[in-house]
Amino acid sequence: MQALDDLCILDLTHHIAGPYATRLLADLGADVIKVEPPGGDIARQLPPFKGGVPHAERSGLFFYLNCNKRSVVLDLKQPAGKAALEAIAKRAHAVVENFAPGTLDRLGVGVEFFRRINPALPVISISNFGQTGPYRDYRLSELTLYGFAGEMYSMGLTEREPVKMAGTAALFESGAAASVAIMAALWASKRFGIGQHVDVSLAETHFGGVDRRHATAIAYQFSGRKTIRAAGGGAGMPQGIYPCADGYVEFTNAALRPDRVDDMLGHPEWNQDPRFNDPVQRLDPAVIEEWNVYFLTWCLERTKREIWAEARRAKVLCGPLFSMEDLFEDRHFRDRGFWARAEHPELGEVEFPGRPFIMGKGGWQLRRVAPLLGQHTEEVLREAGLDDDTMRQVLAAGGAQ
Amino acid sequence: MTHKPLEGVRVVDLCVVWAGPFATMLLGDLGAEVIKPENPFVFQPMTRGAMARPPQLLLERSIAWSGGLPRNEVGPRPWNYNPTFVSLYRNKKSFTVDLRRPEGKDILRRLVAISDVVYENNAVGTLEKLGITESWLRDANPRIILVRVPAYGLTGPYHDARALGVHLEAVMGHTLLRGYEDADPSANTAIYSGDYMAGAQGALAVMAALWYRERTGEGQTIEIAQAENAAAMFTHAIMDYSLNGNVQGAIGNRDVHGRAPCGVYPARSPGDATTMDDRWIAIHIEDDAQWQRFVEAMGSPAWALDPRYATNEGRAEHYREIDARIAEWTRERDDYELMHELQALGIAAAPVLEASRMFDDPHLRARDFFKTQTVRDAGTHEYVGPLWKFEQTPVEFYQPPVCFGEHNTYVYRELLKVSDEEYSALQAAGHIAEEYDPSVP
Q1: Chain B residues with CB inside 8 Å of A145's CB?
Q2: Residues A63, A353: contact at Cβ < 8 Å?
Q3: Which domains does chain B have, with CATH numbers?
Q4: CB-based burial of residue B109 (10 Å sphere; 0-12 exposed, 13-18 middle, 19+ buried)?
Q5: How many whole angstroms separate alpha carbon B230 and alpha carbon B200?
Q6: What's the average model confidence in pLDDT over B38-49?
């Protein structure tokens, strides 16, 4: 038994944030029925592709985002597509969509359509800037999302342009936030019979997020101070990224526990030296210089793993900068069972990150790999009791492989 | 009062840094009663600030989001108004108790007995040292849902590593994957996106475990190894290595999907970066048609009509030249005006907002995004709003960022029904306080 295996989610999302949100529910057992247009989710066209050649069934991104889901192809512009959608909605406990605001209404399958089918059915709409307001129809991408609503302004060097995160990290964060909204709406529906429209603005999930954006806003309200764009290194007690024998290591807030840093460096006696243990004296530029010479040399004589081992022993906040190669080889994650493996008809045997977290009971399972386009159209619509005639029309409109 | 999805759910918050408090704040936003036990004799760094009583100089040298206290003064109770703390402690209750002493631990046991969830993200071993183990918690309440958020997991060689989001993201590859493509990785600023991921998914995990408990009657333990949880954000790099053996590196502001141009360009600025008055516009052209409209918006300059730039392939190959040209065009233009102009053409563009400017944004105002809250000793200010808008179960900020020990009376007297005599004894022993003990630096 999985925690959410009594739930059916009608998933009208595409690209990254929406599908990530619904994948998290599918991982815990929810029957997520992914409705794709005849051409398929746009994420099928996004890299990385197996072999580097674009192919709708060979995107590693699509694969990761859509494991544990079933794919149904519907053309919502046609009556048969709408009838099929209605049949699925009758069995669903929540609808999740991320079309541009107003799109589903124009197709005649907006919130009111679902409300007529089941008044207790929550509809979660994920959009760029929300369902209302002057930017409602504005476009958004990973870059502009993080730039506008995340803490990008203070990322990078003072003399250069602000710089974003890797990949589409911001969209994944938004997806995680949206999954919470879906689950909350499910609880409200289950406990109180409330079917409601939930408006998730990608921008607002970042304005209100934990990674400094909110705190910088409060700091400004409190003090008038703003957060400068700067990297962290070179300020005495380790803070920032340092080169070492085979790469880089990152330290943070070592100044909070100078005793531990001294221990890590093999000089516990320095903790008695006021130049290093007094929070004000150690800000003296001459002291910082003296410190840096010793510390940088210490780093350069050691590998990133050696430094991290010493830091772990001494309980110092530190992390080595791993490449993908380092990560895939690492014994810790291998031995913990972090990596999942599965066979996919187009990708062959795939290795990828498995459970997002470990639940003692009812947690993540890999029940199926990401679906081929329309792989489950007939199966799902038969379960939903669609009549043969409508079924034929749906399949003719692109619902079959 | 409208219904809240999680009303009636009680969460004991034994969290310290970011990922933990973010999760419990989201649960509080959804209506759970989140109660934070705090110790008047122990200051947990990075929960209510770096130090209980930071020297003024340290405050001034600290980055704004941790050192920007009201009026730039340490003030009487700095632990109540550290900006990072304040950003994570709305909709929570606080009471004080010294968990190192048996009578204090007994108070926790009694609270756990009437709660649904215990949530913690301490360094592995910290709670065990206090005797707060899984079995101790389960003895107190067999149906409890225990969430633990270790950096690298409860097991394995790295289980005892001290880490913040920035370190575990470095291990998962983020630090080598982000930043300027032409600079050393040490130009990267610290980042905490992993705390966002684990925090949000922690809230999800709690609600899923509650769902499971509703169906089976059984509680459970959840382990969120933050490093493992952060991996999803790096899907592109992980899957590229997995499928093709490619080791991706930093690409600056370019699009990971290769659609060009995608960059951050200078805009007309009232000042420079040293006073945080520099302005930038982020622009992402996602297809050839958008590029054509963009060229027209720029007045169809000769350079942009180069046929090599008509296709994405050509633009991606010549992105440096194109970026330099776009920067010339944007440099004397207002960032907001550029956004509106380009968005009218269906192009993703937005200012790279310095945080204080969000309060002037007309869209956020139109959506009534900001909420006013009053914090003791800090005054009344506007705060950013919740992450989602629920039509019928709206997120309300019913409890402002909580002061140390603010709910001592509620927790001890109303919830735990502690007698007058016991209350006085606990108070005399220093468990019940609204300030840190003077011995705490």
Answers
A1: 350
A2: no
A3: 10-224+367-428 (3.40.50.10540), 262-357 (3.30.1540.10)
A4: middle
A5: 11
A6: 92
* Residue B415: partners with Cβ closer than 8 Å, 6 or more residues away: B111, B114
- The reply to whether B30 touches chain A by the CB within 8 Å rule is yes
User: From CA A216, how far away is CA B187, in angstroms rounded?
Assistant: 21
As a whole number of Å, the end-to-end CA separation of chain A is 31
pLDDT at B405: 98
CB A34 within 8 A of CB A70: yes
Residues A269 and A175 in one domain: no
Q: Is residue A78 part of a domain?
A: yes
| Half-sphere CA count of A352, side-chain side, radius 13 A | 29
Q: Please check whether residue A2 lies inside any domain of the structure.
A: no
CA atoms within 13 A on the CB side of A177: 35
Per-residue pLDDT of chain A (401 residues; tens, 9 = 90+): 999 999 999 999 999 999 999 999 999 999 999 999 999 999 999 999 999 999 999 999 999 999 999 999 999 999 999 999 999 999 999 999 999 999 999 999 999 999 999 999 999 999 999 999 999 999 999 999 999 999 999 999 999 999 999 999 999 999 999 999 999 999 999 999 999 999 999 999 999 999 999 999 999 999 999 999 988 655 567 788 999 999 999 998 777 788 999 999 999 999 899 888 887 788 788 888 888 889 999 999 999 999 999 999 999 999 999 999 999 999 999 999 999 999 999 999 999 999 999 999 999 999 999 999 999 999 999 999 999 999 999 999 875 54
H or E element: which one contains B33?
strand B33-38
Q: Is the dihedral of CA B103, B108, B111, B113 positive or negative?
A: negative
DSSP letter, residue B210 = H
Which pair of structure tokens corresponds to residue B366? 């139109």
Closest CA to A96 of A19, A41, A44, A2: A19
Q: What does the alpha-carbon distance between residue B225 and residue A100 come to, in Å, rounded to a whole number?
A: 35
Task: Tell me what pLDDT residue B45 has.
Answer: 76
Burial of A339 (0-12, 13-18, 19+ CB in 10 A): middle
Domain count, chain A: 2
Question: Could you give the CA distance from residue A104 to residue B90 in angstroms, rounded to a whole number?
Answer: 35
Q: Do B65 and A226 touch (CB under 8 A)?
A: no
**B206 interfacial to chain A (CB closer than 8 Å):** no
The 10s digit of each residue's pLDDT in B286-338 is 999 999 999 999 999 999 999 999 999 999 999 999 999 999 999 999 999 99
CB atoms inside a 10 Å sphere around CB A258: 19
CB contact under 8 A, B385 and A197: no
Residues A41, A172: one domain?
yes
Q: Cα separation of A34 and A190, whole Å?
A: 22
Choice between A253 and B247, residue whose per-residue pLDDT is larger? B247
Range of weakest confidence among B58-62, B92-96, B168-172, B241-245: B58-62
Rg (CA), chain A: 26
CATH of the domain at A383: 3.40.50.10540
Do A39 and A124 share a domain, yes or no?
yes
User: What pLDDT score was predicted for residue A401?
Assistant: 46
Residues A89 and A184 in one domain: yes
**B66 in contact with chain A, both atoms CB, cutoff 8 A:** yes
Picking from A153, A201, A228 by the largest number of B CB atoms within 10 A of its own CB, the best residue to mutate is: A153
Which residue bears the tokens 């880089």?
Answer: A248
Of the candidates A137, A164, A326, the beta carbon closest to that of B253 is on: A164
> CB of B7 within 8 A of CB of B13?
no
Name beta bridge partners: B145. Answer: B117, B220
Nearest neighbour of B236 by CB, restricted to A61, A191, A256: A61
Residue A313, domain CATH: 3.30.1540.10
Mark whether A299 and A392 lie in a shared domain.
no
Q: Kind of pairing, strands A247-251 and A240-244?
A: antiparallel
Query: Does the structure's ipTM exceed the value 0.95?
Result: yes
